[in-house]
Amino acid sequence: MSAIAPQTILAVFAIFCRVGGCLLVAPGFSASQVPPRVRLFIAIGASLALTPMLIDQVRPSLGDGSGVSVLSTIFAELATGFLIGVVARLLFWAVQLIAVQMTHAVGLSALPGTVMEDHDQLPALATLISIAATALMFATGLHVVLLRGLVDSYQTIPPGHGFAAQPALVDIADHAGAAFLVALRIGSPFIVYSIVVNFAIGVTNKLTPQIPVFFIATPFVMLGGLFLLMLSVHEFFGYFVVALDNWLAGL
Questions:
Q1: Predicted confidence (pLDDT) per residue in 80-105, tens digit
Q2: Residue 82 belongs to what domain range?
Q3: Per-residue pLDDT at 225
Q4: 126 in Cβ contact with 236 (< 8 Å)
Q5: pTM > 0.70: yes or no
Q6: Which phi and psi angles does 201 have, rounded to 5°?
């Protein structure tokens, strides 16, 4: 028992490094509103729950148990988990960016929101969309898909093979392009709305320079943007859930 106990403990800690590194930046789990101690307990609980399935794959990666071998494995597992968490979060970052653009398009950027996911304050509409997207991830059970992707990552990125920085950067760049393409599709109605409305206001202002058309039209721009949001919010979040499901399943 004493001969296998240290290696088993190191294997469990290696699993915790990958799982904890992922949950450190994963959407929902890494929100600033979640206390750090709760995040730590979630990472420990998830690691212990996944240990029976993964320990046989992780234990051989520790090698002879020397300090250099263990430290290299721990660093590689932390980097791999962090990479998976960043890739999972890229879609949420893209949605937050397009939500801020949507807020500017409808003229609601002056209303401050609440700090939720990041430490930066977003406008109120962008905060609402960010909270709704995170809540939908948990309500639809897609956080389980993220954990399943962590388990599958031990097949695609076996422990003990080191961390390849160049393929990781290429993977992040490819996923970033795909994430912002999804976000552009989601926010395209508001981008078109902003272009059409501002063009119409500019033409009207040129035709009647004596009237402050921009200030008069601002309430109507807000009303039209909120009406467009009411019409498209179901399709907005429906497409987001489908895209997030495919996104997390492809990790």
A1: 889 888 988 898 989 888 988 888 88
A2: 5-249
A3: 86
A4: no
A5: yes
A6: -65, -40
The token duo for 115 is 């700090």
Q: Which residue's entry shows tokens 């393929």? A: 167
Q: Which residues pair with 123 in a beta bridge?
A: 112
SS3 11: helix
Q: Is 61 exposed, middle or buried (CB count within 10 Å of its CB: 0-12, 13-18, 19+)?
A: buried
In the numeric block, which tokens belong to residue 208?
């009647």
Tokens 């932390």, residue? 78
* Contact (CB, 8 A) for 109 and 193: no
C-beta separation of 102 from 197 below 8 A: no
- Tens digit of pLDDT for each residue in 11-57? 888 899 999 988 888 888 887 778 888 888 999 999 988 888 888 88
198: tokens are: 């501002």
- Of 160, 10, 8, 150, the closest CA to residue 82 belongs to 150
Residue 3 has pLDDT above 60, yes or no: no
Radius of gyration of the chain (CA): 23
Instruction: Specify which residues 112 forms β-bridges with.
Output: 123
Amino acid at 87: V
The structural domain count of the chain equals: 1
User: What pLDDT, on a 0 to 100 scale, did the predictor assign at position 119?
Assistant: 61
Whether residue 117 contacts residue 31, with contact meaning beta carbons closer than 8 Å, is answered with yes
Rounded to whole angstroms, how far apart are CA atoms 137 and 241?
A: 7
Would you state the pLDDT for residue 16?
92
How far apart are the C-alpha atoms of 13 and 16, rounded to whole Å? 5
- Asked whether 91 and 179 are in contact (CB, 8 A), the reply is yes
What phi and psi values does residue 78 have, to the nearest 5 degrees? -60, -45
Identity at 57, one-letter amino acid code: Q
